[in-house]
Amino acid sequence: MLQDQEAHAAEMERTFIAIKPDGVQRGLISEIVSRFERKGYKLVAIKLIVPSKEFAQKHYHDLKDRPFFNGLCDFLSSGPVLAMVWEGEGVIKYGRKLIGATDPQKSEPGTIRGDLAVVVGRNIIHGSDGLETAKDEIALWFEPKELVSYTSNVEKWVYGVN
Ligand code: GDP
Ligand code: MG
């Protein structure tokens, strides 16, 4: 049965996904991007950027009291990060499932961290953890004009919307 166009539009979400410097340096960009792409999500923004330490501190502001905060911000600003916005129904929560648990020792096989990373300090990818965080992170990393709205040809096949 075809899904109602309005219901489909109402369920659409955007999430902020970033491949951290370790993932970029290890040549994992295409592997990671392809997992989101093959799932059926739509890429609406992408850029390679070396964030400043101050920018990294803004991105991880929630963790400022954690002992690893300084090292984490040093690391995020140590090289190129591939910043992206992905769109789809339920992409915030399911994107986190694709990524896997924060500690790769606990991530399930089949997840990005489970398959491609070993330790928590080098877990290769970031994904927004909720609707508000996604909005804040997208606004921090991208200007509105960098977000590209378009109709993907596969959308009707992914969602069954006419
Ligand atoms: P995430 O949302 O799964 O990325 O996890 P958090 O938001 O809790 O933490 C942000 C990032 O901080 C993680 O992805 C790790 O890179 C890092 N991190 C979290 N916990 C630890 C820890 O216990 N030790 C170290 N070294 N890094 C951590
Ligand atoms: Mg987090």
UniProtKB/TrEMBL annotation:
The keyword Nucleotide-binding applies. Residues 12-149 form the Nucleoside diphosphate kinase-like domain. It catalyses: a ribonucleoside 5'-diphosphate + ATP = a ribonucleoside 5'-triphosphate + ADP; a 2'-deoxyribonucleoside 5'-diphosphate + ATP = a 2'-deoxyribonucleoside 5'-triphosphate + ADP. Its EC number is 2.7.4.6. Its cofactor is Mg(2+). One of its GO terms (biological process) is UTP biosynthetic process. GO terms for cellular component: chloroplast thylakoid lumen. Homohexamer. Major role in the synthesis of nucleoside triphosphates other than ATP. The ATP gamma phosphate is transferred to the NDP beta phosphate via a ping-pong mechanism, using a phosphorylated active-site intermediate. Shows the highest specificity towards GDP. Belongs to the NDK family. This is Nucleoside diphosphate kinase. The chain holds residues 79 to 240 of 240 of the full protein.
